[in-house]
Design a protein that fits this description.
Strands 1-3 form a two-stranded antiparallel sheet. By secondary structure, the chain is α+β, with helices and mostly antiparallel strands. It has 2 helices and 4 strands. Helix 1 (20-43) packs antiparallel against helix 2. It has helices at residues 20-43, 47-70, and strands at residues 6-8, 11-12, 15-17, 79-80.
Length: 83
């Protein structure tokens, strides 16, 4: 049996990290997004750098979504809280 890193949110759609692995993946994705948005445009100017930063950001967010969906205890669906 695998250990789940995320749990479904009580309100809204998605999941919340509950283990150190889940937090590490979430913080790692945030660091990649921030650094690519700051470093890539500084290295090369113009539209190519903006496109490169966008592609890196999109890949990091897609990886976060894929990992969190696979490691969530339960399904992702809209929730209105516990009733």
């Amino acid at each position: 049996m695998s250990t789940y890193w995320f749990k479904p949110r009580a309100y809204g759609y998605g999941a919340t990290p509950i283990t150190w692995q889940g937090w590490a993946v979430t913080i790692g994705a945030m660091i990649v997004v921030v650094m690519s948005s700051l470093v890539v445009p500084a290295l090369a100017g113009g539209a190519a750098s903006a496109l490169s930063a966008f592609v890196i950001d999109a890949l990091a967010i897609a990886a976060l979504i894929i990992v969190s969906r696979r490691k969530t205890d339960g399904e992702w669906r809209w929730r209105w809280g516990q009733r």
